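Exercise 7b. Backbone tokens:
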């Protein structure tokens, strides 16, 4: 008997690990028509863990001081063994995490998996997307470059357009009238402590509801005979005759993560500065405003909307309304039908919204 078997036996007689493994693995059945898009959540979890590991390694050499931050990043890139690789994985990974989170949300949207009884799953996922964006925003300032300094100045300025509380909110975010050392301290604390902790809590809540309610059946292919949920009592969405998570879908998850890694590492090794304009390599100078400073690609639609409206508050209000409608979508779309082709109004509005979002992003990039 190997050492591993002995350890498993020791745990099994105390807490029943084999029974748990059977219940969570081969006993956990999924719909037979489950598809590739359901593995987006596993890819996201893998990216988050990679971000945590690389973030901890960067913390060994990074100095959260406005006088030393840029120099410490230069040391990581040039002097620390494999420091450039760790930083590139962390920086490129943050962009990829936003991209995969958006793909995950789009797949849930088009397959109608947000509908009752999964409203809370949708809300927790929506909050997770916003936490990921907040992580990216706070991490953006940490290199203390011209790009990060002025992009943060523009981003925090936007909050000032909110009536009554705007100026107070801006000062609270910055720790002063202007972006400076207190801002770096606040963003650093948010980025390495508070926001990751909130993400862990929300991921736990997201998984709890997923496990409690059950995986939704894709609206494509053979769906089997199932009694629709009527809303009168709790009922676990079981899939008798389905495929076990272990080993069937675990292999799909691992395949999806391998494909993601192939794309991700291609960017890291062959085009690592894809997300870095030249201002990212210049130390922050509060007295020299760059001519065309712009936020990251995922904030470009928000940036362009603020430029379209002459009144900045109108631009912020329009974005707030759009985000609120998206968060409340399960409570607004109460229809039972989930197949996108059988929901023409939903399909037209969704595709129109995505095209508008992409159009604003491209417009913001070239404006």
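Sequence design result:
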């Amino acid at each position: 008997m190997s050492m591993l078997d002995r350890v498993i036996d020791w745990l099994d007689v105390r807490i029943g690990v084999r029974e748990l493994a059977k219940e969570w693995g081969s006993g956990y059945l999924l719909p037979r028509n489950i598809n590739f898009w359901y593995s987006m959540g596993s890819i996201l979890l893998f990216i988050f863990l990679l971000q945590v590991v690389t973030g901890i390694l960067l913390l060994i050499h990074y100095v959260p001081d406005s006088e030393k931050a840029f120099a410490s990043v230069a040391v990581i890139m040039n002097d620390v063994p494999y420091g450039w690789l760790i930083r590139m994985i962390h920086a490129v990974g943050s962009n990829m995490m936003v991209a995969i989170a958006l793909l995950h949300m789009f797949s849930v949207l088009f397959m109608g998996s947000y509908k009752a009884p999964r409203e809370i799953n949708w809300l927790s996922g929506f909050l997770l997307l916003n936490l990921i964006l907040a992580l990216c925003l706070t991490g953006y300032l940490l290199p203390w470059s011209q790009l990060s300094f002025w992009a943060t100045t523009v981003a925090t300025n936007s909050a000032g357009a909110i009536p009554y509380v705007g100026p107070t909110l801006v000062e609270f975010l910055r720790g002063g009238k202007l972006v400076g050392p207190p801002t770096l301290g606040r963003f650093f604390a948010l980025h390495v402590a508070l926001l990751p902790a909130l993400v862990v809590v929300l991921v736990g809540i997201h998984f709890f509801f997923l496990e409690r309610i059950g995986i939704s059946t894709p609206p494509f292919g053979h769906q089997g005979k199932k009694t629709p949920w009527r809303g009168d009592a709790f009922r676990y969405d079981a899939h008798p005759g389905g495929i076990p998570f272990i080993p069937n879908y675990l292999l799909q998850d691992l395949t999806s993560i391998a494909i993601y890694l192939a794309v991700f590492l291609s960017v890291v090794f062959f085009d690592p500065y894809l997300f870095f304009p030249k201002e990212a390599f210049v130390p922050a100078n509060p007295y020299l405003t760059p001519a065309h400073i712009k936020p990251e690609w995922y904030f470009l639609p928000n940036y362009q909307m603020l430029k379209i409206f002459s009144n900045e508050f109108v631009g912020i209000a329009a974005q707030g309304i759009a985000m609120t409608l998206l968060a409340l979508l399960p409570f607004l779309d109460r229809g039972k039908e989930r197949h996108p082709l059988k929901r023409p109004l939903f399909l037209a509005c969704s595709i129109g919204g995505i095209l508008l979002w992409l159009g604003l992003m491209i417009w913001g990039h070239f404006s």
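Instructor comment: The chain has a mean pLDDT of 92. DSSP finds 14 helices and two strands in the chain.
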